[in-house]
């Protein structure tokens, strides 16, 4: 095979097209990261890369976590939604690569690098790097294992020569892995939030922050699932399992998690307020009394919490694929601003216009990567899982044999 033919085969397999919006976003983002790393703009680029990792990486992981949650709960309406969550798992190795890349410029964003003496046994760059890498690798491994088990179960369910007990053994293993994945997610994302966000203000302590961060990530992932369902429902056979029932249930979950996440935010704020300890209040003072952070904090509340609470009261809106994506997009914009407000003021107190610009330029690259990896998975898995489709019958069978 000639070299030209080899390049053509690889290009077709990965779907590379520099004219497509997804690939164009990746190229522009890569150029911005390279230019920022090699110039004095590195002080703005590295915090922007951190914001995007903790936003887009959390969305991809959260979409798969929802698939694991639905499987663990034996939800019968999620056959189409689960497939979308599985597709997001393909992006998780990208999160690992970006995390490794971040430590090339650790001096530009880790405020206490290489060590914070009062807490040096815990807050030293090598140890932080290793435990963060372990968290990302553990999540990626469990996530890909869960998706592989799903594929194996699908193959066994459609193969007439496979025995029922072998399929059941795979399904039982899927249940165990899904529970392990959910527990690992809660622990790992709590640890990641402590290390990559809280430690940027090293004297600040909040025992609620880990829960707030991973619940907020699941909230953003719900919005991403609604948007993704809207994009694929008319393009793939999977779309017949993404109807009004699925949109209504996802909308109800989005409404519930907007209230839940806002409640965690308020509970954390209230605890810091009545404690009135200088090492804790500093985190709030920077974000609620100084511009542009005060305005951005208010905007976060309006977009990420108030808007879905208002919009999702309407059942016709939730059930309409042509409109349900609107509040979901508003939520994602609000959560991107929220990640910016959590991270950047700890690194750059003044209004960092160049950092905002880098966040905006790099974000389409992450979005493009998520689109391309999910599209590659959905091309090979464009129908609902046979195991998910048989779940209703399996649930009924269990009910019949239960005492």
How does this model look, in words?
The protein is mostly helical. The chain has one domain. Helix content is 76%, strand content 0%. It is built from 16 helices and no strands. The chain has helices at 3-14, 21-37, 42-72, 79-88, 92-102, 125-158, 164-196, 209-232, 244-275, 278-288, 293-311, 315-319, 325-347, 353-380, 386-389, 391-401. Helix 7 (164-196) packs across helix 8. It is globular, with a radius of gyration of 22 Å.
Core attributes:
403 residues; mainly alpha; 76% helix; globular
Q: Evaluate the radius of gyration.
A: 22 Å
Q: Which parts are unreliable, with pLDDT below 50 for 5 consecutive residues or more?
A: 5-11
Q: Which of globular, elongated, flat, extended, rod-shaped describes the shape?
A: globular
Helix tally equals 16
The tally of strands reads: 0
Oligomeric state of shown chains: single chain
Strand content: under 5%
User: What is the element string, with H for helices and E for strands?
Assistant: HHHHHHHHHHHHHHHH
The domain tally reads: 1
Instruction: Estimate percent helicity.
Output: over 70%
Mean pLDDT across the residues is 89
């Amino acid at each position: 095979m000639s070299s030209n033919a080899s390049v053509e085969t690889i290009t077709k397999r990965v779907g590379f097209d520099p004219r497509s919006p997804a690939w164009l976003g990746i190229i522009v983002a890569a150029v911005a990261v390279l230019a920022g790393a090699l110039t004095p703009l590195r002080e703005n680029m590295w915090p922007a890369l951190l914001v995007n990792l903790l936003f887009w990486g959390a969305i991809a992981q959260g979409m798969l976590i929802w698939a694991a949650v639905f499987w663990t709960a034996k939800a019968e309406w999620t056959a189409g939604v689960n497939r979308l969550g599985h597709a997001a798992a393909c992006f998780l190795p990208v999160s690992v690569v970006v995390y490794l890349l971040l430590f090339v410029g650790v001096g530009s964003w880790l405020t206490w690098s290489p060590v914070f003496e009062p807490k040096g046994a815990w807050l030293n760059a090598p140890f932080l790097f290793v435990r963060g890498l372990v968290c990302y690798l553990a999540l990626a491994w469990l996530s890909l294992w869960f998706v592989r088990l799903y594929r194996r179960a699908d193959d066994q369910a459609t193969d007439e020569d496979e025995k029922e007990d072998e399929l059941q053994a795979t399904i039982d293993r899927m249940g165990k892995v899904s529970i392990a994945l959910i527990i690992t997610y809660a622990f790992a994302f709590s640890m990641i939030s402590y290390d990559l966000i809280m430690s940027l203000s090293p004297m600040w302590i909040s025992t609620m922050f880990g829960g707030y961060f991973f619940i907020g990530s699941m909230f953003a992932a719900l919005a991403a699932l609604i948007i993704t369902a809207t994009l694929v429902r008319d393009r793939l056979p999977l779309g017949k399992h993404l109807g009004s029932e699925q949109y209504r249930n996802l909308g109800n979950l989005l409404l519930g998690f907007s209230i839940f996440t806002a409640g965690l935010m308020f509970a954390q704020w209230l605890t810091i307020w009545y404690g009135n300890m200088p090492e804790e209040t500093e985190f709030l003072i920077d974000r609620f009394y100084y511009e542009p952070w005060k305005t951005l904090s208010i905007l976060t509340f309006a977009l990420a919490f108030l808007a879905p609470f208002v919009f999702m009261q309407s059942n016709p809106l939730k059930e309409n694929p042509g409109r349900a994506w609107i509040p979901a997009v508003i939520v994602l914009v609000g959560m991107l601003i929220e990640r910016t407000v959590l991270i950047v003021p700890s690194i750059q107190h003044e209004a960092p216009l160049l950092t905002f610009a880098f966040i905006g330029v790099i974000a389409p690259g992450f979005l493009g990567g998520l689109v391309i990896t999910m599209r590659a998975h959905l091309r090979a898995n464009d129908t609902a899982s046979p195991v998910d489709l048989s779940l209703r019958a399996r649930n009924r069978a269990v009910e019949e044999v239960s005492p």
